[in-house]
TrEMBL record:
It is found in: Cell membrane. Pfam families: LPG_synthase_TM (PF03706). It is a multi-pass membrane protein. Keywords: Cell membrane, Membrane, Transmembrane, Transmembrane helix. Its main location: membrane. One of its GO terms (cellular component) is plasma membrane. It comes from the Bacteria. The chain crosses the membrane at residues 12-30, 53-72, 133-156, 162-185, 211-234, 246-269, 276-299. This is Flippase-like domain-containing protein.
Length: 321
């Protein structure tokens, strides 16, 4: 009788935690929309309604791009995890969207690591953490490559005022400091997400190369899709900008926004601040850029998190063998 009572209490508190995660996610979404210091929600609704961009054709295309954005992310997760444990696309779908909801209001999506790991029994969890780290590094690698190229084009094309003397000083300082940092890291117990660099290096070197290459390819496809979606929304607002010029700014924006630490729910604000500056150089008005970023956020994070909330509520801990 005591065992049954204890089990029921555990189930009650476990259900309460799941409900709290979902309520917390919706509360932060609400706060971001209603109390966004960058863009008043009523102004946003009025501006979007005035532009009348959500025709049936436009809406279907936007949802189509959102679908494939997350399709490639989910497929990437399935491929990476299948190197240690075969999972179905349905399982990968549940884990990806459920962890998105659970990590929505955590700094730099740190909660995603624990949320995905908890789907597996204890002897798999450390490797799942490393796989999640690997997946994020692959996506960040694509963001960095495209971002650096875009930022170089942006600086030279729009003649951004940069002190080349200070830039050379900074470069020389970096050349001197980086070897010292590498040496210091090797001599200390430096960790990333709780794992030593030696362990991470060994894990990556032993990871199936075919899966890595395929996951990197999917990361690139995903990047091209959501960057095109950003450009398409700009076009719907009537902006006159070529795809090449837009990509220069969009890739620069994603790079700069990615390297700024943030609570994930405020990601839209950070991207807004960076984008206002970058697109401002090209003469675009603030409300068009902020509205574009808000729509991107609603489509690619809020909408999937609504589906993810279902999986959070219905989540059950895996049974240990």
């Amino acid at each position: 009788m005591i065992f049954k009572l204890t089990y029921k209490i555990k189930q009650f508190f476990f259900g309460l935690i799941k409900l709290s995660i979902v309520i917390g996610a919706f509360y932060f979404i609400y706060q971001e929309l209603v109390n966004n210091p960058e863009l008043d929600f009523r102004t946003f609704i009025g501006f979007v309604s005035k532009k009348d961009i959500f025709s049936l054709k436009n809406t279907l295309l936007l949802f189509f791009l959102t679908f494939f954005n997350w399709f490639f992310e989910i497929k990437k997760w399935q491929i990476l995890v299948s190197s240690i444990k075969k999972i179905s696309f349905k399982n990968a779908f549940e884990q990806s969207l459920g962890s998105l909801t659970a990590s929505l209001f955590t700094p730099n999506r740190i909660g995603e690591y624990g949320a995905k790991a908890i789907y597996y029994v204890s002897n798999y969890r450390k490797r799942i953490l490393l796989i999640n780290l690997l997946g994020n590094v692959l996506q960040m690698f694509i963001t960095t490559v495209f971002g650096v190229i875009g930022l170089c084009f942006f600086v030279f094309k729009y003649q951004i005022n940069i002190s080349y003397y200070k830039f050379v000083q900074f470069l020389l300082l970096g050349i001197l400091i980086i070897p010292l940092i590498i040496y210091g890291v090797q001599k200390t117990k430096f960790t990333i997400k709780g794992f030593s660099l030696k362990k991470i290096k060994h894990f990556v070197l032993e990871f199936p190369k075919k899966a890595l290459v395929f996951a990197l390819f999917l990361s690139m496809l995903r990047y091209l899709i959501f960057s095109f979606q950003f450009y398409f929304i700009l076009q719907l607002f009537g902006t006159e900008i070529s795809y090449f010029d837009a990509m220069i700014v969009i890739t620069s924006m994603y790079l700069l926004a990615s390297i700024i630490p943030s609570i994930f729910i405020f990601d839209v604000i950070i991207k807004g601040s960076v984008a206002i500056y970058l697109f401002g150089v090209m003469g675009f008005n603030d409300i068009t850029i902020l509205s574009t970023i808000t729509i991107m956020w609603l489509l690619n994070f809020v909408l999937p998190s609504l589906f993810g909330s279902y999986y959070v509520i219905n989540f059950n801990l895996p049974k240990e063998n």
